[in-house]
From TrEMBL:
This is Uricase. GO terms for biological process: purine nucleobase catabolic process; urate catabolic process. The active site is at K14, T59, H255. Keywords: Oxidoreductase, Peroxisome, Purine metabolism. GO terms for cellular component: peroxisome. Urate binds at T59, D60, F161, R178, V226, Q227, N253. Belongs to the uricase family. Its EC number is 1.7.3.3. Transmembrane segments: none annotated.
Amino acid sequence: MDENYEWVERGYGKNSVKILHVRREGPVHTIKEYEVNTQLTLNTDKDYTHGDNSDIIATDSQKNTVYILAKNHGITSPEDFSLLLSSHFLSKYSHVDRAKVDVETYPWRRIVMEGKAHNHAFLFSPEVQHTCTVTQYRGGKPLLSTGLVGMRVLKTTQSAFVNFVSDEFRSLPDMEDRIFSTVVTAYWEYNRVDGVDFGKVWMTMLKLVYDKFAGPPDIGIFSPSVQNTIFLLQEAALKVMPEISKVQVTMPNKHYYSVDLSKFPEVGSSVNNEVFLPTDKPAGNITAVLGRKVNSKL
Ligand SMILES: O=c1[nH]c(=O)c2[nH]c(=O)[nH]c2[nH]1
């Protein structure tokens, strides 16, 4: 390669390897459906610079690896499966410098009929997506991040937005009681992967989203802003899950504006707290990453 150039990024793999794994324990079956991306970075660049393929682990072989490891080891969680794949690629091929694996899960849920869980029938339940990414360098610890993605929620009260900057650009009135709707996305990084129950962490994060967005079923929880709700969720997540090092939460503010019906005499009241205009775009884009301080004891 010309001495004026250097690699900024390099790697190759198979994207969107679709797999359904069925675990059969007598009549009770359990399924996992995933889309897996693999990416390997080699310690040589001769494949790119010289057309020398002798070190290439074909993307087709990477795809086969996904199926073979699933068959031989089973699948418990996307995190465990990604870790299995990344460590396999590094231990099997000594010329692989970095392995990266992404998993997107398909949200199947066991069907429950009259309170009884079905043995082998499932419902596609796309309320919330579970994703994860593992990046592992040779000789290094795997860096694992999990995503809780696309969870659309709405509440009709216990949300306000007042006392923000008032200047010549402001048209929004103070809102003491408004609709709050968002699509929650949370990504969190683990500070360790050994002995972690990833399924339990996932369920805990889901419960915290309910706790901090919705609150108790009868009275809810007050939100003075999307920013504050994001922080309360992040703080609670770091508090109750020591295995998490940082958490990014994004909550686009999907606005619902009260329709102005004040000019219509046939509408008895000038107050309208029933009819709203859903406004998906533009949406407020509110996000933050909260991490632990270096040397933090918590
Ligand atoms: O919770 C909110 N935060 C904002 O920053 C903002 N900006 C806005 O127009 N509405 C809202 N709501």
